[in-house]
Amino acid sequence: MNFKIRPATKEDCKGISRMIMELAVYVKMPDQVKISHEELERDGFCQNPFFECLVAEVPEENKSTEGFTLVGYAFYFYTYSTWKGRSVYLEDLYVMPEFRGNGIGKGLLSKVAEVGKKKQCVRLQMSVFDWNTPSRDFYAAKGAQDLTESEGWHFIRFDNQSLDNLANEAPKD
Amino acid sequence: MNFKIRPATKEDCKGISRMIMELAVYVKMPDQVKISHEELERDGFCQNPFFECLVAEVPEENKSTEGFTLVGYAFYFYTYSTWKGRSVYLEDLYVMPEFRGNGIGKGLLSKVAEVGKKKQCVRLQMSVFDWNTPSRDFYAAKGAQDLTESEGWHFIRFDNQSLDNLANEAPKD
Known about the structure:
Two copies of one chain form a homodimer. Chain A is an alpha+beta fold. Chain A has helices at about 15-25, 35-45, 105-120, 135-140, 145-150, 160-170, and strands at about 5, 50-55, 70-80, 85-95, 125-130, 145, 155-160.
C-alpha cells in the first residue's frame, strides 16, 4: 500500500487526537484521555515544543472506511540519560487496524529512530503493558531489550493530590 | 543542617558529573557512565536544553570531608502524555551519603514538583530498580504509585546496533 510518513503540522492535531482515543480504546483505558486537540496544538507547535509527532498518510483513494487519510502516528520527545546522554522516547506508536500489515508501524518506528540519530540520540525508549504481547513481540523482533525484565526497572508516578502535596512542601527560595 | 537548593549553572557541571558517578557506584553500574561534564554543559545550557537540574549546596563551613559544597542534585526534563499532557520526569535524585537524613532529598524532590506545577505539568515520574528498597519506600511514603506493579508497564529500549539497524531501515522521504 502507498503511504507517506511526514512530520505532523498543527492542522493534523484533530486527526492525531482521534487516533490517540482509538489507541486508548485498544489498551482498554478510553476514560483516561483528558487531552484535547487544542492542547496538542498549543504544546507541540510553540517555541520550545513539548513533543514532536510523525503521521502516516494514505492517498485519497485508499482512505479509511470512515473517510480518514491520516492512518497512523508516532508521538515522541527527547529525554536525557545522565549515563549516556541524548535519548528519544516514543510515547505512542499507532496504526489504524484496517491499515496494519502494510509496514506502516515499522516505517513510523524506523523514522523516529532516524530522527533521533540525526539529533545524536543514543537510545530509543518506550513503555508497553505486560499483557500487550503483539507490541512486545514487535519491538523484541527488532532488537529491543525489556529493561523491566533484564534489569528490574519499575515505573513510578506522582499525580493529582500526591503531586500537589509535594509541590506545596517545597523549600522557599 | 543549612542547605540551599538552586537551579544549576554551567559552572556546576563538573560537580554534577562527580555526583552522577557517585550515584552510578551506588546502583552498582559505574562502568555505564559515558557522559562528560562538557556534554552536560553543551546539552543543558543551550537554546533548547535537553534537561534541567537543581543542585543542593551547603555553606563552606559544612563542606564534605573531601571539600565539596555541592552535595546533591535533581536532574529532570519535560515529557508529555497523550492522555494527560505535560509531565516532568526525574531522571536522577541524589544526596551524598554523609549529608543524608537532613531533608535534602525531600527538598530536591519537592522543588522539582513545584517547578513542574509552575509549567502546568500534571505528573512527576521516575524509574527505580526493584532491589532499591530505600528509594522505593521513600517515593511510596510520599504518595507515588508503582505503575509496573499496578498496571504492568514494562520499560523497553533500543540502543547501539538495534538502534542503527532501525534508523537505516527508515523509509526515504
